[in-house]
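anyone seen this seq b4? input:
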Amino acid sequence: IVPVSATQQIGLEDLLEAILLVSDSTEILANPEGTLIGTVIEAERDRAKGVIATILVQNGTLNVGDTLIAGLAHGRIRAMFDFYGENINSAGPSTPISVMGLNDVPSAGDLIRVVDSDKEARMIVAEKEEKLKDAQQRTHRPVTLENMFERFQEGQMRELRLIIKADVQGSLEPIISSLQELSASDEEGKIRVNILHSATGNISESDVDLAAASQAIVMGFNVQADEAARVTADREGVSIRFYTIIYRLTEDVEKALKGMLAPEEVTTVIGKAEVRATFKIPKIGFIAGCRVIEGEIKRNAQIRVVRNNAVIYEADISSLKHEKDDVREVRNGFECGIGLRGFDSFQEGDILECIVRELVKVI
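predicted toks r here
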């Protein structure tokens, strides 16, 4: 390690000597005719000259007029300068240079490459941007009370992580106590509240950083968020919620927990028909001649056969006719013929309940 301070001009000669010593003892080879390899050292946007990038060529040769890609920036090199600021037309290995012509400011450390055309450069950069965008969406997806159920369905979490800030200790304690009593359960286990941090005072940047790292939600009671905290929250996609009434806070958490539960299958009776007669039709089977006494019977629904107040069979509708026509639905007061898959034991007086099933979120 060589101690160095540019401002105090300490250790600069020692650093140069160490670099020369390492270069002499290490076999470092480069091919001026090989594939271009280089790294962006720094870059800036000059009002008069546009984007200027300082690059160190490590292999190959870079020429004025080459089409360059540096990170997510690209462009045709219009001018090239050496470390004295003099115009040059080409630069070989171990040459630090400044180039003009990029469309955007690359980041320090970005690798560079040369391609054949501007069109190819745009396509490569567009592909990089798309991959980066997808990666950011996956890793920096905001966690909010509203999307907790979606994240639970995807198997991303089984707990609601919270960071609680309150104005005084007298408010903080009942909030913590109320939240710790909340939980929900489904067939896969318990979904609980996990309070990662709680304290008094305004919401700070460190609170937001913790929330971002742990995919938590920040909740504040009678407090505000510092400007730095707001900026960080916007950048990291952290949800900050503010409350002035304790039960509103606990109510929102309780709703989020219930939203995280697996949806329940709810069966709804949308219509009823009474069997008045039975018929046997060739190639179709037994058909129940019915009169709709409530709601409507739909072709794409299911039928429960109720006899003596007990359900004896349940199946999909195989045939639904009004007079001689196949129909999609028959409403209250009309007669129809109903056939069920796998069932032919209709009796007069049977009640056929038309049902639909749907998954609904627990509220």
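The domain at 148-260 is CATH 3.40.50.10050 (Rossmann fold). The longest helix spans residues 118-139. kinda curious what u guys think
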